[in-house]
């Protein structure tokens, strides 16, 4: 470099990146296990066939030919079945029809679980605990007659002197409901307060505790219930612009959000109250003479496995369709406080769906098996007045929290199954699974036909006038295929040159023609295709 300015006649390229256009995401969540869900539904089909009429053969929706509109009907049926199943469980927790009607619907409604203990020291007691060790002493005595001998044996047993500290513990837990922020005005729907005596071998360690409240918003659930008719009224609005598929719409998303919150609420009760709070009390009880507990935390958390409760959230259809359609009344007496709203829609799109009468029978089976489990616990577990740490109330609470988690998980998997079914049908119709690369090829092909002038590859040689190229400038993808982007370009009037300071005494000035390039990046949902300047 002989002067302070270097003139480069090759043209600089300016790149303009426009905002990306987002296409709907088509891949399902990896947490959904299709085979596991199919096995669960097929295991439940025996109960379904026993509940319905003879010669009825419901099947998984994917095994039945049906229309696209039937998928929306299937989502509505399973969502309403989930709502009624939730209410069946909440009724056992004290949330009956009278309580539901008394809740102020103009404010957010919250279901709240509280638990606390109050400890009081009673006395210190010394207890003698026999040990397994024993000692024998033999003593021989001889009489006047040398032939007469007497042997005496004395057995001494070791005794351990242990101090016991007796505590009076009052345990209180409750489930309540309140509207807005009026926690003081909450209505308790189920509770238990009992006093028991705990024995420890140290005077410290027993303190009064108050667990943080575990809350669940039930506003969405109440909005899906007609409080006048006491019917479930969930329905996907197909006219809404945000409704993309039977699964991807605002109504189902809110239902899935509630299912996730319900699952979290139940897990909070199981882990915080049963897994820590109650388990801590049982571990603290350590008398000198141990007496085995009839029921432990392991029995409590496993109570759900002792009873078979039917899950009515099933994506079922029939090849021939039911013989009698919905006529405005299903003719089945409901065993639930909330009934299924009957539909008068008997068009051909919904002929493969189960009727309201069929769903009502399945919901009655759910209520019946739930009642059977409830009665079984009442007979086998201690009563509330027994003073035991674990009673029938705790067992019922454990049973319902486990079952509510199963219902919410089944509903989430059902919605994923319907979306997966539609995705597989689309793949079968197209012949392959579409990827972002397929979208790029599609856009490039049609842009070449629709746009004039057509986009050109962003690949430009670098050279001095009258010389061979010394390099290549391009923007390529970083996915391994190294495909360059296609862009539009036009020359712009250069009002000034580009100057790059190399050092205090050297400035690189770029002159020549200047071009503006435009490129639109397309992608599926959150998938992102990266590019690099080469």
Could you characterize what this model shows?
With 534 residues, the protein is an alpha+beta fold. The chain is built from 9 helices and 20 strands. Strands 4, 5, 6, 7 and 8 form a 5-stranded antiparallel beta sheet that branches. The longest helix is centred in the last third of the chain and has 39 residues. The N terminus is likely disordered.
Tell me the layout of helices and strands.
Blueprint (H helix, E strand, L loop, with lengths): L4 E4 L4 E11 L10 H18 L7 E2 L7 H25 L4 H6 L6 E34 L6 E31 L7 E14 L8 E2 L3 E4 L1 H5 L1 E2 L4 E2 L17 H35 L12 H5 L14 E2 L21 E2 L15 H25 L11 H39 L5 H15 L5 E2 L1 E4 L8 E7 L8 E7 L5 E4 L5 E4 L3 E11 L6 E3 L1
Helix pairs in contact: 2-7, 2-8, 5-8, 7-8
